[in-house]
Fold:
Amino acid sequence: MDAIRSAGQGPPGMTGSTRTPRPPGRPRSQEADTAILTAALDLLIELGAAQTSIEQVARRAGVTRATVYRRFAGKTELLVRALELANHDHDPDFTGWRDIEHMFGDWAAHLAVPRHRTLLRRLTGTVDDYPELGRTYRLVNGGQRRAYVREMLSRARDLGELPTDVDVDVLGDDILTGAVLNHLGTHPDDESADEIKAYFMRIMKQLGYRPAVTKGRQRI
Amino acid sequence: MDAIRSAGQGPPGMTGSTRTPRPPGRPRSQEADTAILTAALDLLIELGAAQTSIEQVARRAGVTRATVYRRFAGKTELLVRALELANHDHDPDFTGWRDIEHMFGDWAAHLAVPRHRTLLRRLTGTVDDYPELGRTYRLVNGGQRRAYVREMLSRARDLGELPTDVDVDVLGDDILTGAVLNHLGTHPDDESADEIKAYFMRIMKQLGYRPAVTKGRQRI
Structure:
């Protein structure tokens, strides 16, 4: 009850929906949860995990510190939950890519958004102090998506677009993950999705990738 | 003069050399510099740039905060100088590698030291808040070393160990840098140098690398 009252002390600050009547079954406390998790994610991106405090999250969410502590055991749990929410919001109906070109186009579109880039860098930068954050991200992103990457690479191999002896695990887990990390660390944040996709295709070319349409001009 | 007196207020805490007479021409203020820079590098590795303060550096170096501020404009300059020192200490006579195997053996030996791994992760994690740190590291490490990497890759291509159409820039700058970043982020810190070298060789195999000695069994 206290939590509900506390949540009412300030605007959730999420959407303009506070003006419209709340639908039944969506309690006030869920609005506070969303406001807190959104504030936590924003601060994680802006300041990083180390510089984010429960106090700042409460202030930005428009709730008291006590409200935050009643819902989350501490900063790490709060940030982990914020990451989970961020991910569930991102394309929940995703069922895979059509082919390799489609996959890299999707990756490039994601990496062309500066906010996504900063979040990914924040996560890789927290390995030593907040290992739970990186683990959460890998769990949410790693499971099904990783299987789709392998499927795309295996299919390309079967189509003759990749060498028959390609190791899809080394390619997917090590080389392509590394290519993403390298792009985040060494390329400017204002590259377009087209430029980023071209970056991935340059790398794939070095791995022997030759799109089926230009197969006649393969490998010298 | 003040700086010299301040430096005398506490032990530099570097080596046991405070007991032995200082050689002529090595002023006390250089000892304080070294103590400050060593403390700064240690704290950068232990806590990260955001959590490191001038006050902590001064305390660990055994000098006053004023001494640190007289020598360095602020935290960023201090950390940049500490990084430069760390790098100059690391194998100043380095003139390149014999071949690719030697190069990856050297990288693996470096990456098998947890302290090196943490420092590299700290640097990649500071892109958004302390871009000068990453820039410094790339300047010191990037220039000559990058040229050596290209030379090794070009030589391997000329020996027939890499495909004739290999792009040594994409391979060196993007794929291999990415492979290092991926290892730092996704592999445990207790892997041996042998295991890490094997990781690089697995990646090189996907890039068509076939060592000259086993050339008869190349590519299926």
